[in-house]
Amino acid sequence: MGNNQFIKMVGFSIIFHLFLFSSFLINFPTKKGVSKKIYYVDLIEIKSGGGGSKGGGSQKPPSGSMRELTVKKEPEPKNVLRYPVKKPKKEPEKEKTVISRPEKSGQKKETIFDPAKKELTTGLGEGFGSGEGFGTGEGGIPGFPYYYYIQILRDRVSSNWFKALVPPGVAGIYKVVIFFKIKRNGEVDEIKIEESSGLESLDLSALRAVKFSIPFPPLPREYEGDYLGVHFQFEFRK
């Protein structure tokens, strides 16, 4: 009798402790701040599209299904009117200082010879093209029919005339005349600026061109004069 009663008490104690342990597990609290949501999913019947069915594929789910599983999109911001941005105005470039002078009327640009004064007028520039004004061939110009000699004078002076000496800001039409006398042997006497252009740099470049061309070839043998006076015109255009 004593053993049976002891066994019953042990069994009752085991059952009682199991009951307490199970109830403790059921009512065990979850972590603070963590909550579990239960999502409900609507089951949608998906019809397979047969070969002859219209639409070919699965139908779109009805609106409102799976609402909790989707992320709500924030509404796109409305277009904001933007005022046009004014572009900064470019500052006008500073104009260069330009010194201009109109061409004088009545200027002689052809090559001529004055037999009474024994003076030749020729030059370089827009009005003195190659062969212009004094003819070609053996005829030359009246009173000085030596075309080749005039061409030598112009070619030699032209090769020594440096227009780059004139300031780049200068614009207009200018003329400077250099007078000099060529002796029989080609030496030069009485060289001077006969007519200034008003630009010192242009006058000096013309005078330099003549001086750097000295001596010239001897005068033609057929020429009867003791010297040849030359009015050499330099016409500058820019």
Structural class by SSE content? alpha+beta
Mean pLDDT comes to: 74
CATH class of the domain at 119-126 and 144-237: Alpha Beta
- If classified by CATH, what would the architecture of the domain at 119-126 and 144-237 be? 2-Layer Sandwich
Order of helices and strands: HEEHEEHE
Percentage of residues assigned to helices: 10-25%
Molecular shape: rod-shaped
Percent range for β-strand residues: 15-25%
Head-to-tail CA distance between termini: 144 Å
DSSP helix count?
3
Number of strands: 5
Q: Report Rg.
A: 57 Å
Spatial strand order of the main sheet: 1-2-5-3-4
Q: Uncertain spans, ≥5 residues at pLDDT below 50?
A: 46-56, 94-108, 129-139
Question: What is the makeup of the main sheet?
Answer: 5 strands, mixed
CATH topology of the domain at 119-126 and 144-237: Fusion Protein Consisting Of Minor Coat Protein, Glycine Rich Linker, Tola, And A His Tag, Chain: A, Domain 2
Write a short abstract of this structure.
With 238 residues, this protein is an alpha+beta fold.
Structural notes for this entry:
- This protein is an alpha+beta fold.
- The protein has a domain at 119-126 and 144-237: Fusion Protein Consisting Of Minor Coat Protein, Glycine Rich Linker, Tola, And A His Tag, Chain: A, Domain 2 (2-Layer Sandwich).
- 21% of the residues lie in helices and 16% in strands.
- It is built from three helices and five strands.
- It has helices at residues 2-26, 147-159, 200-211, and strands at 112-114, 119-124, 173-183, 188-195, 227-237.
- The model is unreliable at 46-56, 94-108 and 129-139 (pLDDT under 50).
